[in-house]
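ok so dumb question maybe but i'm new to this and my supervisor (M.) told me to 'just get the structure for Adenylosuccinate lyase' and walked off. so i did the thing. is this what she meant?? sequence i used:
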Amino acid sequence: MVERYALEPLKSLWTLKAQYERWLEVELAVVEAYEELGIAPRGTSEEIRKKAVIDVEDILEIEKVVDHDVIAFIKSVTKNMGDEARYFHYGLTSSDIVDTANSLALVRASRHILDSMNKLADVLYKKAVEYKNLPTIGRTHGVHAEPTSFGLKFLSWYAELMRDIRRLNDAIEEISVGKLSGAVGNYANIEPVVEKIALEKLGLKPTPVATQVVSRDYIAHILSVFAITAGLIERIAIEIRHLQRTEVLEAMEPFREGQRGSSAMPHKKNPILCERLTGMARLMRSYAQVGFENMALWHERDISHSSAERYILPDSTMTIYYMLEKTRYLVENLRVFENNVRRNLELTNGLVYSQRILLALVESGMSREEAYKVVQKYALECWESGESFKEKIQSDERISEYISKEKLDSLFEPDYYLRNVEEIFKRFEK
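this is what came out, is it supposed to look like this??
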């Protein structure tokens, strides 16, 4: 956990105390199941609940001796109990508790993440609508291509985020599983009905087949969803970083009063938030990679996954939550310089309308090969000279035979490229 990037409520969810509380939650659900089945006396779970004390320092001190965190937890939590302690952890193995509690943590963390995703989606959609009719230059390979709608940038991000939301909903449903099936998962010392009852109390389902652990594909899947979502955030951040370049300056991330961009250069306004998000996206991909590596364990289990998960489960959920919250702040407060957007549209002196000229010539009867050659000839000359592409085209008598001056003027209108934008937006009407 990096305090700098740990936001509530995710931060509190992953404290050691919260971890032990989840372990106790699982243990109590099992005791309650034993009570319902008549295996443990009525009132056993209530007595345990009253007497169980989670003392983090005491657990850690015991762990120094036993070198096993679950055993240390059991010894500490049951030290004030009487006969009811017999039913605490009865028939269970450590992974029953740890894996089931991890599922609880991931489900709860993911619900907060999902809430943040939905809030970001609302902001993206509002920005898309706000800038729907603002013509901007579309860029491919970083080079001016053709005019498009500035709002489509946001709508594209919104559409991708909605897919991520669906993916996370599916992953939450999938990872809402636990296992309470004993040392190698075959229910030798605990009946399947106990697992079913206990997991229902926790809002989980039994994994269909377990070894000593729940298979790690569940975790790999949800980590990959987080990584994909981080990829979208990186996409947003890189776009804004490009648009904030001095030579472009179409948009700029928020710069608060009192904020300073450089210790040496007072004029600087740097896209530090976007760059931070880009770096974090790299981390998110690495967490997913560890999730994939954890899938292959020896036989019924080893613990090569355990140490890694102590890092990646808290850090991945807290990092993606931080990224989502900061991206919402970024987009909500993004400065868009509309005059610069319009200025940059004309930087090439009309070259971005070359395809319209090409198609108009073809529609008027010129072969595509001839039309492409003549348009490209003038386009490349204008690349070098900086001359007006429209004036070059008008000076060619062959082109004048096919396209009138009035028609030619209409081919250099950016609004033409927005004529179907409304149709795209209709796909997302709420």
